[in-house]
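Researcher: Quick test of sequence recovery. C-alpha cells follow.
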C-alpha cells in the first residue's frame, strides 16, 4: 500500500504540475477564468474532505484517549498543521532573505501578469530576466508548499486508500494552475519549451517527500494516524484559504470563484456520505 501512496503522490505532484506547465507554455496568460473556477472548485472539495472526512476520522482515531481529550488532540493537531505551514512560509522568507524576491503565490502571480502585459505593450522590450527570476521564485515557493500536500496524501492513504486516491486527484487538479504560474513566466522569459515543462514538472516532485513523511508518521498506530490526519487537514485548510482561494480570486474576480468553491464543498459532502 505504501508503494501505491508514493505513486499517487508522484502522479499528483509531477503530472498535475506538468500538465499545468504544458498549458502555461501553450496558453500563457489565457484561460484564467476557467482555471479560476477549476481551482475554486478543487479548493471547496478539499475543505469538504477536511471537514466531513479527515477531522471526523482523526477524532475517531484519537478516541483511544479518554473522551473528550481525544477531540482536543484533533483540534490541537489541526491548529498545529496551520501553524507549521505558516511557519514554513515565514522560514522561506528568511532563507530567501526577501521582501523583494519572495512573496505569496498570489502576489507573485499578479506580478508575473503585470510583467507579461508590460512586455506585450512594449513589443517585448521588457527585460526577460525579470520574468525568468519571477518564474524561478514561483517554482521554489511551489516546491516548498507541495510538501504538506504530500503529507495529506500519505496521511489519508494510510488511514483509507480510497480517500488517499481522492485527495491525490484533487491535489493534482490544484497543481495544474500552479504549473501554469511557473511555466508562463519562464517561457515568456525565453526559456525553451521542453526545459520549462521539465522544470515545472520537477517542482511537483516535492509532493513525494511529504507523502513519505506522512506515511512514516501514520504507520505507527491509530493515535499517530489521527494526529497526522489532523495536521494534514490543518495544512490543507491553510493552503486552501491562504493560497488557493486568493489565487482563484486574483485570476477571476467577482462571485464566481466563491460559488465554485461552495459547489466543491457540497460535492465533497455528497461524496463522503454516499461512499
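Model:
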Amino acid at each position: 500500500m505504501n508503494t501505491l501512496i508514493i505513486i499517487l503522490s508522484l502522479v499528483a505532484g509531477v503530472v498535475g504540475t506538468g500538465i499545468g506547465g504544458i498549458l502555461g507554455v501553450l496558453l500563457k496568460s489565457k484561460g484564467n477564468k476557467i482555471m479560476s473556477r477549476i481551482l475554486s472548485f478543487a479548493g471547496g472539495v478539499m475543505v469538504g474532505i477536511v471537514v466531513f472526512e479527515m477531522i471526523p476520522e482523526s477524532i475517531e482515531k484519537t478516541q483511544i484517549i479518554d473522551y473528550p481529550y481525544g477531540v482536543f488532540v484533533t483540534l490541537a493537531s489541526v491548529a498545529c498543521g496551520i501553524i507549521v505551514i505558516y511557519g514554513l512560509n515565514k522560514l522561506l522568507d528568511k532563507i530567501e532573505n526577501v521582501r523583494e524576491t519572495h512573496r505569496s503565490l498570489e502576489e507573485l502571480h499578479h506580478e508575473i501578469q503585470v510583467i507579461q502585459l508590460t512586455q506585450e505593450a512594449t513589443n517585448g522590450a521588457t527585460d526577460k530576466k525579470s520574468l525568468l527570476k519571477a518564474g524561478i521564485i514561483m517554482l521554489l515557493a511551489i516546491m516548498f508548499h507541495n510538501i504538506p500536500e504530500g503529507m495529506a496524501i500519505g496521511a489519508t492513504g494510510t488511514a483509507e486508500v480510497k480517500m488517499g486516491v481522492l485527495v491525490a486527484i484533487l491535489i493534482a487538479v490544484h497543481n495544474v494552475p500552479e504549473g501554469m504560474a511557473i511555466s508562463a513566466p519562464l517561457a515568456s522569459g525565453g526559456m525553451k519549451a521542453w526545459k520549462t515543462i521539465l522544470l515545472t514538472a520537477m517542482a511537483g516532485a516535492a509532493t513525494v517527500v511529504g507523502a513519505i513523511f506522512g506515511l512514516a508518521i501514520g504507520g505507527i498506530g491509530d493515535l499517530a494516524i489521527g494526529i497526522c490526519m489532523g495536521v494534514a487537514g490543518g495544512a490543507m485548510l491553510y493552503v486552501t484559504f491562504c493560497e488557493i482561494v486568493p489565487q482563484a480570486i486574483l485570476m477571476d474576480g467577482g462571485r464566481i470563484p466563491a460559488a465554485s468553491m461552495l459547489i466543491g464543498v457540497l460535492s465533497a459532502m455528497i461524496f463522503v456520505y454516499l461512499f
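The CA atoms of residues 104 and 213 lie 25 Å apart.
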